[in-house]
Amino acid sequence: NGKVLFSLANMVKPGVFDPDNMEQFTTHGVVLFMTLPCASDPVMSFSIMLNSASQLADDLDALLLDGQRNPWQLSTKKEYLERIKVNG
């Protein structure tokens, strides 16, 4: 019920989740994203989003990818943080 820090969408069109059928739900991936500027601290929101994505990937034995679907790297995190500082 607080501020929205980031969003989660189904990677497969139309991008939504059907809460009534979640037990049968399968997908090839999910997308976590945030919009800038945001009402909260953008670096904190990004850190929470990245930690959530990492935890999901670990829990689901999945890959964590960047916006171009390349494997997530420490250099990617630095690049995203620079973009946040410019646009946040």
In short:
This protein is mainly alpha-helical and 88 residues long. The protein is 38% helix and 9% strand. The mean pLDDT is 91.
Radius of gyration: 14 Å
Tell me the fraction of residues in β-strands, as a range: 5-15%
Oligomer: single chain
- Poorly predicted ranges: none
Number of strands: 2
Order of helices and strands: EEHH
Instruction: State the secondary-structure class.
Output: mainly alpha
The major sheet is characterized as:
2 strands, antiparallel
Count every helix, treating DSSP H or I runs of 4 or more residues as helices. Answer: 2
Helix proportion range: 25-40%
Mean pLDDT across all residues, rounded? 91
Strand ordering within the main sheet:
1-2
Distance between the termini: 23 Å
Q: What would you call the shape?
A: globular
Verbal overview:
With 88 residues, this protein is mainly alpha-helical. The chain is built from two helices and two strands, in the order ββαα. It has helices at 42-60, 74-87, and strands at 7-10, 30-33. A two-stranded antiparallel ribbon has the order 1-2. The two termini are 23 Å apart. The mean pLDDT is 91.
Topology diagram in text:
Layout: E1 7-10, E2 30-33, H1 42-60, H2 74-87
Antiparallel strand pairs: 1-2
